[in-house]
Amino acid sequence: MAAISREEVAHLARLSRLAVTEQELDQFAGQLDVILQSVARIGDVAADDIPPTSHSVPLTNIYRDDVVTPCLTQEEALSGAPDSAEGRFRVPRILDEED
Amino acid sequence: MTDVTRMTAAQVAGLISSGDASAVEVATAHLDRIAAVDERVHAFLHVDRDGALAAARAVDEKRAQGEELGPLAGVPVAVKDVIATRGIPTTAASKILEGWKPPYDATVVERLRAAGTVMLGKTNMDEFAMGSSTEYSAYGPTNNPWDLGRIPGGSGGGSAASLAAYEAPLAIGTDTGGSIRQPGAVTGTVGAKPTYGGTSRYGLIAFSSSLDTPGPCARNVEDAALLHSVIAGHDVRDSTSIPQPVPDVVAAARLGATGDLTGVKLGLVKEFAGEGAEPGVLAAFRESVEALVKLGAEVVEVSCPHFEYALPAYYLIAPSEASSNLARFDGVRYGLRVGDDGNRSLEEVMSLTRDAGFGPEVKRRIILGTYALSSGYYDAYYGQAQKVRTLITRDFTTAFESVDVLISPTTPFVAFPFGSRTSDPYQMYLADLYTIPTNLYGGPAISVPCGLSEGLPVGFQVMAPTMADDRMYRVAAALESAVGTLTPPTLEA
């Protein structure tokens, strides 16, 4: 049985904000299924009582002095933006017109 | 004068500090070499001729004024294109960042500049460092100088190939699952992954934040150690940077080069010395183990029972972190924007931008990571992978109670022909089988050339405990003293 369906891949792509083509969906569904079947054996490891590791070198409470240091100028921060206006990032509309 | 492009970084630095060569002459020789061979190798995505010559002139002026020069002043270095360089294009080999010029330098770049090294340009890689062959670069692959029809490893294939092609004596890479070490292995060069947190991630375009580690690439162990000592050390701008002194890796490399390993205990990882690797790789590895025994090392077999689950754990953890990290490419603050015709919504523009800007492997991993993190699958996949990460770490700490370092081949196979592993992504993932456990644990590891199989380089991996980077340099330098460095084909037309 497939670990992941074409419909699931389409849903995940939408969640990931990837406007994938039908052709990509066909390709990815099969490939992701192979990958998932290969990694699924991680479930074979008995690890119920094992704490998770999110970071290899645990560091806590790293403090620094609260000193003002130079940062990017507005011009520098906007220098790579595909579109800007009045010193701000310009974005396509967020709300529908009827909203 | 002998060709400076064939020299070690230490020799080049010596020539410059003694005045026998100027930094400008050295930079020019390397830039000329790039101009002569990079059309065939394609190690570079961007060559910064003017910037390199200006940096070299600054070193020559400092010397003329009698100022003291650092140990690598005037030495050219190539930098992987995933690392931000102020005013110099930085793409991570992705179309989504085509033409982006960062307004700031990464910490490692800042340190390279402060040390007086001369940055030649930016090197090719798999897009966002996801891959083992550079075949996923949006700008075309890098060709392995040993055989131009074969992969140079990945993701940092450009950095490794630039060394093997004598275009640069030093290069910077990043290692998330083996992206420094596996390219080092298949190009016959040295690649070291420092302890996670030992080198700063500030200015490194994030792939998997709990694993990404910048590190040195060179043609010999001492040069790698010299570069390591320039870029390593605590950085307040990286919250996971370790606030401890850097071990003296240069002294360790020089000690190792004396060829004496008396009293050093090596743990041969049983799980990585049998099936799964090509016979020629195993043969070169075993001969190297014998060479180390002759130098006085004691070798014992060590079992690390959870290492076999490292690959699945990695391919759940790294894509999960990537799916989150790559959300920043939204067509708003930098890079590509597609479909903004005044009618489409932000969400539509974002989705079109990301589909047009990301290549197939990046999309696969974003979708895989989104899956592993989604409710209903989180516990079985991401959560379980994090628990297995704990067990892999325990395998390492248990092993290091009885041995000084662990050893294995770096990668199961020599450089493979282009196209042979792209149709089934999991076949590509297997290239990182032996390098990934270290990333999950966080300790340092190095790949050093140990011989040839079918005329192609084989890498030997030394893994050390966290913050004991000096140990791996000592063992690697000792092996190098026994088997020598490899000399790649010259690529003369």
TrEMBL record, chain A:
<dbReference type="Pfam" id="PF02686">
    <property type="entry name" value="GatC"/>
</dbReference>
<dbReference type="GO" id="GO:0050567">
    <property type="term" value="F:glutaminyl-tRNA synthase (glutamine-hydrolyzing) activity"/>
</dbReference>
<comment type="subunit">
    <text>Heterotrimer of A, B and C subunits.</text>
</comment>
<dbReference type="GO" id="GO:0006450">
    <property type="term" value="P:regulation of translational fidelity"/>
</dbReference>
<comment type="similarity">
    <text>Belongs to the GatC family.</text>
</comment>
<dbReference type="GO" id="GO:0070681">
    <property type="term" value="P:glutaminyl-tRNAGln biosynthesis via transamidation"/>
</dbReference>
<feature type="compositionally biased region" description="Basic and acidic residues">
    <location>
        <begin position="85"/>
        <end position="99"/>
    </location>
</feature>
<keyword id="KW-0067">ATP-binding</keyword>
<comment type="function">
    <text>Allows the formation of correctly charged Asn-tRNA(Asn) or Gln-tRNA(Gln) through the transamidation of misacylated Asp-tRNA(Asn) or Glu-tRNA(Gln) in organisms which lack either or both of asparaginyl-tRNA or glutaminyl-tRNA synthetases. The reaction takes place in the presence of glutamine and ATP through an activated phospho-Asp-tRNA(Asn) or phospho-Glu-tRNA(Gln).</text>
</comment>
<keyword id="KW-0648">Protein biosynthesis</keyword>
<dbReference type="GO" id="GO:0005524">
    <property type="term" value="F:ATP binding"/>
</dbReference>
<dbReference type="InterPro" id="IPR003837">
    <property type="entry name" value="GatC"/>
</dbReference>
<protein>
    <recommendedName>
        <fullName>Aspartyl/glutamyl-tRNA(Asn/Gln) amidotransferase subunit C</fullName>
        <ecNumber>6.3.5.-</ecNumber>
    </recommendedName>
</protein>
<keyword id="KW-0436">Ligase</keyword>
<dbReference type="GO" id="GO:0006412">
    <property type="term" value="P:translation"/>
</dbReference>
<feature type="region of interest" description="Disordered">
    <location>
        <begin position="75"/>
        <end position="99"/>
    </location>
</feature>
<dbReference type="InterPro" id="IPR036113">
    <property type="entry name" value="Asp/Glu-ADT_sf_sub_c"/>
</dbReference>
<keyword id="KW-0547">Nucleotide-binding</keyword>
TrEMBL record, chain B:
<keyword id="KW-0436">Ligase</keyword>
<comment type="subunit">
    <text>Heterotrimer of A, B and C subunits.</text>
</comment>
<keyword id="KW-0067">ATP-binding</keyword>
<feature type="active site" description="Charge relay system">
    <location>
        <position position="80"/>
    </location>
</feature>
<dbReference type="InterPro" id="IPR000120">
    <property type="entry name" value="Amidase"/>
</dbReference>
<comment type="similarity">
    <text>Belongs to the amidase family. GatA subfamily.</text>
</comment>
<dbReference type="Pfam" id="PF01425">
    <property type="entry name" value="Amidase"/>
</dbReference>
<dbReference type="InterPro" id="IPR004412">
    <property type="entry name" value="GatA"/>
</dbReference>
<keyword id="KW-0547">Nucleotide-binding</keyword>
<feature type="active site" description="Acyl-ester intermediate">
    <location>
        <position position="179"/>
    </location>
</feature>
<dbReference type="InterPro" id="IPR020556">
    <property type="entry name" value="Amidase_CS"/>
</dbReference>
<dbReference type="GO" id="GO:0006412">
    <property type="term" value="P:translation"/>
</dbReference>
<dbReference type="GO" id="GO:0050567">
    <property type="term" value="F:glutaminyl-tRNA synthase (glutamine-hydrolyzing) activity"/>
</dbReference>
<dbReference type="GO" id="GO:0030956">
    <property type="term" value="C:glutamyl-tRNA(Gln) amidotransferase complex"/>
</dbReference>
<keyword id="KW-0648">Protein biosynthesis</keyword>
<feature type="domain" description="Amidase">
    <location>
        <begin position="25"/>
        <end position="471"/>
    </location>
</feature>
<dbReference type="GO" id="GO:0005524">
    <property type="term" value="F:ATP binding"/>
</dbReference>
<comment type="function">
    <text>Allows the formation of correctly charged Gln-tRNA(Gln) through the transamidation of misacylated Glu-tRNA(Gln) in organisms which lack glutaminyl-tRNA synthetase. The reaction takes place in the presence of glutamine and ATP through an activated gamma-phospho-Glu-tRNA(Gln).</text>
</comment>
<feature type="active site" description="Charge relay system">
    <location>
        <position position="155"/>
    </location>
</feature>
<protein>
    <recommendedName>
        <fullName>Glutamyl-tRNA(Gln) amidotransferase subunit A</fullName>
        <ecNumber>6.3.5.7</ecNumber>
    </recommendedName>
</protein>
<dbReference type="InterPro" id="IPR023631">
    <property type="entry name" value="Amidase_dom"/>
</dbReference>
<dbReference type="InterPro" id="IPR036928">
    <property type="entry name" value="AS_sf"/>
</dbReference>
